[in-house]
Specification:
Layout lengths: L5 H35 L7 E11 L2 E11 L18 H11 L4 H12 L5 H19 L6 E15 L3 E13 L4 E8 L5 H13 L4 E7 L5 H8 L4 E4 L1 H8 L8 H12 L4 H15 L4 H14 L10 H4 L3 H14 L8 H19 L10 H15 L8
Parallel strand pairs: 3-6, 6-7
Antiparallel strand pairs: 1-2, 3-4, 4-5
């Protein structure tokens, strides 16, 4: 048997597949115009008028002379592709996925050219990904559920190029609805993270229909608690315990860290709130002389650090920290890091939107552990009824 060079074999295989695909496409086109002439638009004044040839790029190779039938009146249009479409949508879809994966428009353009021999300028790639902006606008204004058991709020920074490169905030909101489904509700890019920025974010959530909220989980950004309570006065506030531990950790001497943090952990892992308060009293008496400021800070914030004890035990691990939304932020940073800096807000929005859509699709069919439990749902229903059945607060 004659040995065929690998590249020659590859070309032969590609040509064979392309030829077969061309035959099948042309067969479909013939059946399509036959149906059009005899069933859809039957008329004695119209008839077939041969065909014209065009190139068509597919994922299996380029068809250089696809025979497309036509009619004398020029009214027939195949449903297989648009009039001026020269390739399947797979390449555009691939470009969007590469962009989402953290490749710059210039890197995507070079990759496409090296793989397919098709020249794509960075501007062309940007124009293709620009189609995502229409989806973003629709997604950002979509109606939300009325009830959310939990809202997680967290921010991250991205580098954007304006006159100079600077870091700007991304406000990210994750919610768990009354069915226990977790999803990204929205994101907002621009400026520096502030309580006023969060106030506008929360107003938008409420305007889009999220009126009944039981709990907000976030870090200790100054003014954020007041902003949250202003928009959702019937909701509880849970300050992230993990953030608080991280903020305290550097202030403890190396020799005391293990014992201090071990004693502190007993507070927020106690069986219930009463036990947690009793444990904190012991913690306070042990450490207040050596670390008065740190212990006082915990004591002052203890009511909102222990809010999670008001909720069913099966969901406490999910609500005492912002870890769920921080994991999402970590993934976003990984996607954004290879880009160094983005050319504008729209570029950042594209990446974040595509990641948010993936996240929501992955979680759409799964309730968060503990939230679907009948006892938990009954407890939440009682909370909703107690707080919102006769809610007379005006919408912001």
């Amino acid at each position: 048997m004659t040995n065929i060079p690998e590249n020659a074999f590859h070309n032969l295989l590609e040509n064979t597949v392309t030829k077969l695909l061309q035959e099948k496409l042309e067969l479909l086109l013939q059946e399509e115009i036959k149906n059009y002439m005899t069933i859809e638009k039957p008329t004695s004044s119209n008839s077939r008028n041969g065909h014209y040839k065009r190139s068509f790029q597919t994922r299996y190779g380029t068809i250089n002379a696809l025979r497309v039938p036509r009619d004398r009146k020029g009214t027939f249009q195949t449903q297989l592709f648009e009039p001026y479409q020269r390739r399947e949508g797979w390449l555009e879809e691939a470009i969007i996925h590469m962009y989402k994966g953290g490749m710059s428009t210039r890197e995507v353009a070079k990759f496409i050219e090296s793989m397919f021999g098709t020249h794509y300028s960075p501007t062309t790639v940007s124009n293709i990904t620009q189609t995502v902006m229409e989806d973003i606008e629709e997604w950002q204004t979509r109606p939300l559920e009325k009830r959310y058991s939990v809202l997680y709020l967290d921010g991250l920074y991205v580098k954007l190029k304006r006159n100079t490169v600077s870091s700007e905030a991304v406000y990210l909101v994750m919610g768990i609805d009354e069915k226990g489904i977790r999803q990204i509700l929205g994101f907002y890019v621009g400026g520096h993270e502030s309580s006023n920025g969060w106030r506008e974010v929360l107003k938008d959530l409420k305007k889009r229909g999220a009126t009944d909220v039981l709990l907000g989980v976030f870090d200790g950004l100054p003014g954020l608690e007041d902003a949250f309570r202003e928009i959702y006065p019937m909701a509880d506030v849970q300050h992230c315990v993990v953030h608080k531990v991280r903020a305290t950790f550097p202030k403890i001497r190396m020799a005391d860290k293990t014992a201090f943090l071990s004693d502190l952990k007993q507070v927020y892992t106690a069986m219930d709130r009463d036990v947690a308060l009793a444990v904190f009293d012991g913690f306070k008496s042990t450490w207040s002389k050596r670390y008065p400021k740190e212990v006082k800070s915990w004591e002052e914030q203890l009511p909102t650090l222990l809010t999670f004890y008001k909720y069913p035990s099966l969901v406490r691990n999910a609500i005492y920290t912002t870890n769920p939304i921080e994991r999402m932020n970590k993934e976003l940073r990984k996607r954004l890091k290879p880009m160094n800096s983005l050319t504008n807000i729209e570029a950042a929005e594209k990446i974040i939107y595509l990641q948010a859509i993936d996240y929501n699709e992955n979680w759409c069919g799964r309730a968060v552990r503990g939230f679907s439990d009948p006892g938990t749902r009954a407890a939440f229903e009682a909370m909703y009824s107690e707080r919102y059945a006769n809610n007379s607060f005006k919408e912001e």
